[in-house]
Amino acid sequence: MPHQPQGAAFDIVLLFHVGSVAVGLASMLAGAATAARLQRALSRPARVPGTVLRYFRPGVNWAARTVYAIPVSGAALLAMSQGAYTWRDGWVMAGLGAFVAVALLAEIVLWPVERRLQSALAAHTADTADTADTADPAPGGRWEAPARREARLMVRSSSLALLLILAGSALMVAQP
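User: That's the sequence. What structure does it adopt?
Assistant: Structure tokens below.
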């Protein structure tokens, strides 16, 4: 194996890379956990917790989009490694494959489901003050069954994305 890359620039990019992975992991975990809480709240006559409503406020989940920084910083690390790591390394290609799977899953399933849940909750939530802990999203409405299915799909897709990021991270650490 060629020499181990050194230098402040490499270390900074590596920290950014690891930070991007950590934020990606945290955002996928938060998405899965919050969708599970929504699913539970909609499956019984209960109020949707305010924290769940705040998570599903309409807008782009920018924290989740940090997963795109993972391959960008990874490519920069390859370029800065002075031949220590290359695109021909199996673990590099496997990690890239895991990222591609995460990106496709997020773009095709996860983020569209999240947007649909945001719209459903926004359209069916009673107006409440920002200090309220809960809100009644029109209990008993026809929107609840589809929202439960969407929440279940979000839990599953977030969990799968989380597992893929973890698998890619394990590959990067082990470098088999």
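Strands lie at 48-49, 134-135.
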